[in-house]
TrEMBL record:
Protein name per the record: SDR family oxidoreductase
Coiled coil (UniProt feature): none
Family classification: Belongs to the short-chain dehydrogenases/reductases (SDR) family.
Sorted UniProt keywords: Oxidoreductase
Pfam short name (any one): adh_short
Length: 282
């Protein structure tokens, strides 16, 4: 057994499914959810699936919630909580930028700090960050989200080096475009902005997430293996078929030149693609 596994952001998406699968296999799992309404909802789903799952309110931006987590004797931590703010860098309101980093970066690191100290004192532990391919590359209209995931990548890399001598391992999961609803709602956050739409550079009602999206099963399966220590790699780019493309994209940055004034292909695709477009099976 892996010991007590804490998963943040387990009220939906990757976190919830991974928590339920681990609990179904008999592991001691704590599903941390952002709001109290999600506690009963996730508990109900666990009952429907016939599994025992401990569900706790854990808003990673709430100091009180983070302090409560210190009583849970966590041996494996999955920092999965996250939000995604879509929009051009010149248009996103200040409070939305701050929220992006508070949820995706500051809160998770402040939660990780005391838990990592306890792992170091035990000389054992595992910390996993649900990062993103956006922690390695950047698309138009995802600058805020990608910036937060680039920050996550930096912290994860530093922690991996700093905690090695204390018996604590660190890993990242880097999902690409998976069809969970997360990417599509990122392109709807503009509806909550309290700004003057006339001053925006773009009409966001005309834009959508500019990628076809995959079935999320590989993320669930891989994350479970990483949390249980069955997969010893540091980085996990998913789906694996995207890895050559991402490597090529990163290498191309060294020879990148100034833009030529024409609209890039991915910007145009954001206008052309329909939301929630799946990848066609080959």
């Amino acid at each position: 057994m892996a010991g007590t596994i804490l998963i943040t952001g387990a009220g939906s998406g990757f976190g919830k499914e991974v928590a339920l699968r681990l609990a179904a296999d008999g592991h001691d799992v704590i599903a941390g959810v952002e709001i109290i309404a999600q506690v009963s909802a996730v508990r109900a789903e666990a009952r429907e699936r016939g599994v025992e799952l401990r569900v706790e309110k854990l808003d990673v931006t709430d100091p009180g919630d983070r302090e409560r987590a210190l009583d849970w004797d966590v041996e494996v931590l999955l920092n999965n909580a996250g939000v995604s703010e879509g929009g051009s860098t010149v248009d996103i309101p200040a409070e939305r930028l701050r929220r992006q980093f508070e949820v995706n970066v500051i809160g998770p690191i402040l939660l990780t700090q005391p838990l990592a100290r306890r792992m170091a004192a035990r000389r054992s532990g595992r910390i996993v960050f649900m990062s993103s391919v956006a922690g390695l590359t950047v698309d138009p209209f995802t600058g805020a989200y990608a910036a937060s995931k680039h920050a996550v990548e930096a912290f994860a890399d530093a922690l991996d080096q700093e905690l090695a001598e204390f018996g604590v391992t660190v890993a990242t999961i880097n999902p690409g475009p998976f069809l969970t609803g997360f990417n599509d709602t990122m392109f709807e956050t503009w509806k909550e902005w309290r700004d003057d739409p006339a001053e925006r550079l773009f009409d966001y009602s005309a834009l959508a997430f500019p990628h076809e999206q995959y079935d999320p099963e590989p993320v669930y399966a891989t994350t479970v293996r990483v949390l249980l220590g069955e997969d010893r790699r540091y980085r996990h780019l998913l789906p694996e078929e995207m890895e050559p493309q991402v490597r090529e994209q990163l290498a191309a940055e060294w020879g990148r030149r100034l833009n030529d004034g024409r609209r890039p292909g991915l910007v145009q695709k954001a206008y052309d693609i329909a939301p929630a477009t799946p990848v066609r099976a080959s």
